[in-house]
Amino acid sequence: MEIIRGRLEQAAATDSKGKLLSWEDHILIAKDSRVSVRKIEHIALQNGIMPAKYQRNRNTITIEEQLKLFQSKVAVVGCGGLGGYVIEELTRLGVGTLTLIDPDIFEEHNLNRQVLSSVKDLKSYKAKVAAKRVKQINPAVKVRPIVDYYSLVNGKENFEDVDLVIDALDNISTRLDLAQTCKDISVPLIHGAIAGWFGQVTTQYPEEHTIEKWYGRVKEKKGIEGVLGNPSFTPAVVASIQVAEACKVLLDKGETLRNKVMSINLLDMEFELFTI
């Protein structure tokens, strides 16, 4: 371990904001030391060396916080419209462990809005395509794709040891079940929903009931997205707010949407906060 630390110190370039480890040196040291790039990233962050891929984070996220993100474990339920953007952003942010849950395959109607979809990946499982994308962007991230439906039955098992769950589902009844599972395992939940020009986001901790109160006695399985559909931009906006909320929860900083729902109207460019 001391030898690896020495190699990292030797390789790190120092600028006005601290030490940076280039990707070229990152993989070279991993290869020479016969350890994973994930292990090298962990050792670097523990020793105050920032992997250069995160250098534009530094005015917003300290190296101690970057280490905390690396040590965090997040589950994303749904790898489609919302989930694809959430996964992309969590990966680039540097969240170290991702569990990705989705039973579906990519279909042609996904191409208008689901950032992970492509013509070559039609009929491929979304969770597996998402996992491949994670590794292409950030090989230090540990990723576990689960090609299965989330349910009350398998939820606790699939969320074992996670610090946070992100809701990227598309039906109300399953969302309510997901909220219950998160309560049962005492894990925060970041909820997001989209429909046409509109969206919503909230952050719910285990002792809270914002999602249940918001949906009230709604009986429909699907929300209004089944009628309005979704263009390309709505999931990108809502997912980005979800990831910002996730970052704040994981780092325990800033003001989150606890006990509030942010309602987003991109047609009239109106953002409203409702206290629940």
Automatic annotation (TrEMBL):
Can you name one GO molecular function term for this protein? Answer: ubiquitin-like modifier activating enzyme activity
What does the record list as coiled-coil region(s)?
Answer: none
Taken from the record, one Pfam family name reads ThiF
**In Gene Ontology terms, what is a biological process of this protein?**
cyclic threonylcarbamoyladenosine biosynthetic process
Record domain THIF-type NAD/FAD binding fold: where: 54-274
Instruction: Give the matching PANTHER family.
Output: TRNA THREONYLCARBAMOYLADENOSINE DEHYDRATASE (PTHR43267:SF1)
* Identification of the protein by name: Thiamine biosynthesis protein ThiF
